[in-house]
Amino acid sequence: MLITVFFINVTYAALNLELTQGIYGSMPVMFSVGGDSSYEEHAVAEKLNKAIARDLSLSGEFKVSQGDPFIPSMDKISQIQKNGITYVGFLRIKSDDGGSYTATLLFYDLMIDNNVDFTRPKVVTRYKFNEADSKDFAHVCADDLYKYITGDDGVFNTKLAYVVHKKRPGMGSIYSLEISSYDGSDSTSILESYEPIMSPSWSNDGSKLAYVSFEGKKSSVFVQNIATGHREKISDINGVNGSPSWSKDDLTLAVVLSDAGFTKVHAVDLETKNVSPLTDGYSIDTEPEWSSDGDSLYFTSNRGGKPQIYKYNVASKIADRVTFKGDYNASPVLSPDLKYLVFMHREGGLFSLASQDLHKGTMKIISRNGSEESPDISPNGRIVVYASKYGSRGVLGFVSLDGNIHWRLPAVNGSVQEPSWSPFMHNKRESFLLDETKI
Amino acid sequence: MLRKVFFMLFFVLVSSCSNNNEFVNKLNNSFTNWNDDLYNNDVKVHALNDVVPDTSHENKGLSWKKEQSQKVVEVYNFGFDKSSVDFEYLDKIKSQTAYINSKNNYVLRIAGHADERGSREYNVSLGWKRAEAVASYFEQYGLSKQKIMIVSYGKEKPLVYGHNPTAWSKNRRVEIFYEDA
User: Fold this and answer.
1) Tell me: the pLDDT tens digits for B83-122?
2) Structural domain span for residue A234
3) Which of A120, A155, A190 is the endpoint of a domain?
4) Contact residues, chain B, for A284 at CB < 8 Å
5) B117 with A372: CB under 8 angstroms?
6) A22 or A434, which is more confident?
7) Chain A interface, best mutation among B21, B109, B125, B130, by max A CB count within 10 A
8) Residue that finishes a domain, picked among A137, A155, A173
9) Fewer CB within 10 Å: N-end or C-end of chain A?
10) Residue B172 to chain A, least CA–CA distance (Å)
């Protein structure tokens, strides 16, 4: 049974992620952060407490309760168990010399262990962090708790890239390619242009973005190093240069180039810049998406008359049709485990997002507001981000892959379009982690 | 600038038969920065962190500028998901061809567009097919391929904002411009 459980509005971010539909019976989790004694410790603890609880609540999968900071004890555990809590996280921070902190996360699973010994948590994780990095550290902590509870990696420490289109009467347009946290906060521009920017795509190592820019009143595919701003033009033929997609090893970029009236999927070797055509025939072929094993590419083609999704086998060079329901299926993205394909779907003139089980072939609508486009999947495969319309303004929407949880990320200034979800940023966790002990 | 354009178009021309190797050569040889110098001020690249000092990243923020509308010479409209040129436009294309050929210093820019329905990249391909269809008539009527530059914006630059059939039919279009060589 689905019901709208709660709405969260957080006011400090430029873009505010809102949970619009959660699930009834989400897992009850208790979480708190405690400092030892000093004023500074309490202030940092409170900040972390809020940020971690916010992440966990925003996931839509947990009902987070936050008791007063507590020291684990047998009395406390039986009390918590009576309240129906199934997972408990307790983070204790201790100020070191020179503005850094040591933190210890104790994790208890009351679901499998009814007689919990509070001296023996299921996982003990120790970290070191500076106060200036407490935002990132909170995301890392939330990710770890998420993993201890669900078994999957969390995405609280990942990023989004998207295009913001701003317009002013008589002043034309400014397009901005922006990067933000997964929840839209801390957005920053890495490219601005008076001409359209399209199709951002993260490299699998998370260091670069490929995109299409119409600067110079023609289309070109660029690859930009996010940290340094250095960028390289990959293709600018007199025609279409579009839809970049990275191979798993980041050595090849699939792009769409026009040739004699049609657009075809090509592979560009990023080292040698050699270009080789992949698909052929008298049709529009576009929107390639590499599978994570590198064996195939999914793409959109109208070779059967209407846009449908096909799978191109790299070894056999044969393309097989994958989608059959509806008269318009486009923009394919694959779940990392290669089990599901998510795409734009049209039936009865209305667009929606659909997911298809690639083994069974069954299709399911996961979001239907009539204007969904440009889907992308989170690196843990659990959430789909997409662009949509709210009035005449472009906004980002999120939906869990099973279609049960929905979020909305309203735009503040301008229309937001074409989201691309970053890979995991595991190096962030490594920079904080001291050790992890599982019992 | 025009020399660069011609240089690039030359490769497109000599390799227009679609043999794979020639096509690859064409692509590899077209990575010249044609007319980029004209538009250097139209983009700003920002580094995420200023680890590497680079003067080109210093002035953060592109400022608003007064819209410079390029004069659209003619607009040809298309049916939904269609890229065939209506017969009513052929006479116009013929007379435009004669006009451009009478001017030594004109090149033709053809921009394809689509309506807002459907995916962004599919619409770029659709706009391209439309622009190519118009370009082939210009060539048929005697305009040299070297004088034609084609771009497709898909649904990125609608003429009319609106989510209704009237707006959609106006946005499914090919625009032509003259540009000084």
Assistant:
1) 999 999 999 999 999 999 998 888 899 999 999 999 999 9
2) 159-425
3) A155
4) 122, 125-126, 129
5) no
6) A434
7) B125
8) A155
9) N
10) 17
